[in-house]
Design a protein that fits this description.
With about 240 residues, this protein is α+β, with helices and mostly antiparallel strands. Helices cover about 35% and strands about 20% of the residues. A hairpin with a 2-residue loop joins β2 and β3. The longest helix is centred in the first third of the chain and has 30 residues. The chain is elongated. The N terminus is likely disordered.
């Protein structure tokens, strides 16, 4: 007699068993992937631009550019896009063309060049309302720059930044005429001169300032901020107006 085999009677894998095992493995892989994605979303999702353009509590919708990264500081993948101008923008005709005011969507110019572009854009918008162009004066440039400094110093995007009256710098300089001010802070390319002006145009109170017929002079200041509070890559504009 031969030696008895104790394995011969075990059932061989059937096709059904193989199918069940494959199905179970597939679901396991799906679960693992789902958990991994959830972890990425929980720890790696961030708002790349955050709010598009904000001024005085108002906000113009420029969409959201959301990106995910598997770990902080690592490479990210963009999941959506922002647009420079609001959809169905009713104030588009007040925006000068690239030929009329060149470089309106650039953020790689010097601050002085960007301010010059903004002056062109503002006066074009006013001309569409048959209003006189505004003359840039050194005094309002200086007080606009002082307001930028105050906003940055206190991380307080507000006309009354640091709790100081909005017109403090202007009155301290001896100016007694009518005075107005527009502010805007925007992220990335939305902070370029043309989109920034469009943000003002889409805000009733800021638009009223832009089109006020009493103004004769203006001043401008712009600052690029690597970080402002929790936001990165921000452009801060201050535009002041005067009647003398």
């Amino acid at each position: 007699m031969g030696v008895e085999s104790r394995d011969w009677y075990q059932d061989q894998p059937t096709e059904a068993a193989e199918t069940a095992a494959t199905s179970w493995l597939r679901w396991l892989v799906i679960v693992v992937i789902a958990v991994a994605l959830a972890a990425i979303l929980a720890f790696g999702m961030r708002m790349l631009y955050g709010p598009g353009a904000v001024y005085g509590g108002e906000e113009v919708d420029h969409g959201r550019n959301i990106s995910i990264s598997p770990f902080p500081g690592g490479p990210s993948i963009s999941l959506s896009r922002v647009w420079l101008y609001p959809k169905n923008d009713p104030w588009k005709r007040y925006l000068a063309s690239e030929k009329r005011c060149p470089n309106g969507e650039r953020t790689d110019l010097s601050l002085q060049q960007e301010a010059t572009v903004m002056v062109c854009l503002i006066n074009y918008a006013r001309s569409e309302r048959r209003l006189v162009p505004l003359t840039v004066v050194a005094f309002l440039n200086e007080t606009s720059a002082e307001k930028v400094g105050r906003i940055v110093r206190c991380t307080d995007f507000n006309h009354d930044a640091c709790g100081i009256d909005a017109a403090e710098e202007v009155r301290a300089g001896g100016y007694t005429g009518a005075w107005g001010e527009n502010l805007v802070i925007a992220s990335g390319s939305i902070g370029a001169p043309r989109p920034a002006l469009d943000a003002w145009l889409n805000s009733p109170h800021h638009r009223e300032n832009l089109f006020d017929p009493q103004w004769r002079n203006m001043g401008l200041a712009v600052q690029h901020l690597d970080r402002f509070g929790e936001d990165k890559d921000m452009w801060l504009w201050v535009n002041q107006f005067g009647d003398r």
